From TrEMBL:
Transmembrane segments: 7-28, 48-65, 77-96, 116-134
Protein name per its UniProtKB record: Sulphur transport domain-containing protein
Keyword Transmembrane: yes
UniProt keyword terms in alphabetical order: Cell inner membrane, Cell membrane, Membrane, Transmembrane, Transmembrane helix, Transport
Membrane topology: Multi-pass membrane protein
Domain of life, source organism: Bacteria
Length: 138
């Protein structure tokens, strides 16, 4: 059973949107996590510092929240192998989709990108299908 957390989800979404807007205003860049992550891997680009800082904040902020004010019990209902397989499948989708959910869903839709709209429709459709299959069929 998935816990419904509307206030925490709203706060998280607000912070993601704020981070995307601030990144666009300050650096003129799109907050697509895949592109940012790729930017800190070799060969290194000239804008590696802000990308490393952005990713560090994206990792440390939830850890800080968990250590200080979280009252939500975290559970991992799947095996490590399933997480790895899911990560590989996601990586393939990101490669063929020319971006990830944050780049297309948060930033692309906000810029009224048709390509991002199609990408979001596709990955949300497959997400719904995956949840249905894993919860009701398998």
């Amino acid at each position: 059973m998935t816990e419904f957390t509307p206030l925490v989800s709203f706060a998280g979404g607000t912070l993601i949107g704020l981070a995307a807007v601030l990144l666009m205003l300050s650096w003129g860049r799109i907050a697509g996590m895949t592109g940012i992550l790729a930017g800190i891997l070799p060969p290194f680009g000239s804008d590696m510092r802000w990308k490393a800082s952005f990713l560090t904040g994206a990792v440390l902020a939830p850890l800080l929240y968990e250590a200080t004010i979280s009252d939500i019990a975290y559970q991992m209902p799947v095996s490590l192998e399933a997480l790895i397989i899911g990560g590989v499948i996601t990586g393939i989708g990101v490669t063929f989709g020319s971006g990830c959910t944050s780049g297309h869903g948060v930033c692309g839709l906000a810029r009224f990108s048709r390509r991002s709209a199609v990408a979001v429709i596709m990955f949300m459709s497959f997400a719904f299908l995956t949840v249905f299959l894993t919860r009701h069929i398998f």
